[in-house]
# Entry
Amino acid sequence: MKGLLLCLATGATLLADPYAERVATVMSTPGLVAFWDFTKREAPGQRFTAHVPAGAKNDYALDAGNYVKDLWGQGPAASYADFPLLGAGPFGQAIRIRAETNPDFRPLLFVPRARLQDTPLDIKGSGKAVSVVVWAIRESGNHALAGIWHEGTDLKEQSTKTIAKVERGQRQYALFAGLNKEGSACGHVSENGASSFLNKYALHKCNSAETSPKVPADSDPATLAKSWQTFAMTFDSRTQELTGWLNGVSGDRWLENPQQDRLLSFAANAWLQGRLAKIPGVQPGEDPTFPADQYYNPPEETPVKVTVLDEQRSKRTELREYRYTKVKVALVNDREIGRELVALRLNPWWFPHDLYTPKADGSGGPFTIGRVIHSSRSVGFTGWIGGVAVFDRALTAAELARLHAVGATPIAAPAAK
# Structure
């Protein structure tokens, strides 16, 4: 009674139901497009649906599928029975993504392209921004959590030799559990649906500074209760920054000596080719056939920090740290005679493009949860997923911290919604 009187006196909203209070916190965050909590369904025992803003015409019901069966014509069909339920979670329920041992079985939950094309979930095109938040417990893996990320089955992999449907990549945006930095929150975006910097994979991605621990999915309830992590990615089209966030914190992450990295050496070469192309004539190391739309040249006008590494008479070597790169610069009589890329910033990552817009012919990718369609058919992420939310704007640090706080501890499954 005292609590009720206090709420009335202060004008506070009283929500006795913790589930309703948590859902309201997510729903009240500006820019929400869809929020799956794995409690809301079409009807008891039927498909999961999303909480959507008032007046929305699509609640994005999730189908169960096995993309190997769909594209390779191999393996069994998938059903909701392939996603065990925890009975608790940040919003009262969670689904398990298991380490499937059958190489022809990669189940996922998805919204087919036909039901999302040109809806608010289909975030793409000029000036569009996006945030994806996933509440999860990571058991293993570094691959996809949720997003529109059809990698394509036209890549030259051992597994694609038996492919039945060859399809071009249809990547837009997605959140991963680390990729090149396992356990981090890794945002991934694409401007062309396909590859980057002449590598066969898309390489525009960020990695949060912190990483999530590995927790066995069959741990005791007390262990699981304290193991929830909030993975998030934001792409701000105004600042052209892609940022990964773990538990509401982004942090700085740099990749030193990117030329030595298996994949991001291609980004380092794109930086080099873009720089050399600005110099008249063909320079040593320049590839005149390198496509100009794949250069990677973040702003390097004003350094954040300058460190003199060596100075002898008229010669000087400086390490210049910019917002997204670290560059070693050689000077003679204060005139620059050469520069070398020393590091690339992985968080935030500079992305000077619009999000890919697929053709309106049905070929775009679905929105998937738990896995994405990819040619290597690896197991990917395993663990528990207790909520997925998508926003059509870049959330702030304060908003992401609030979303982490609301789901940091689990609640028991509420009555069927």
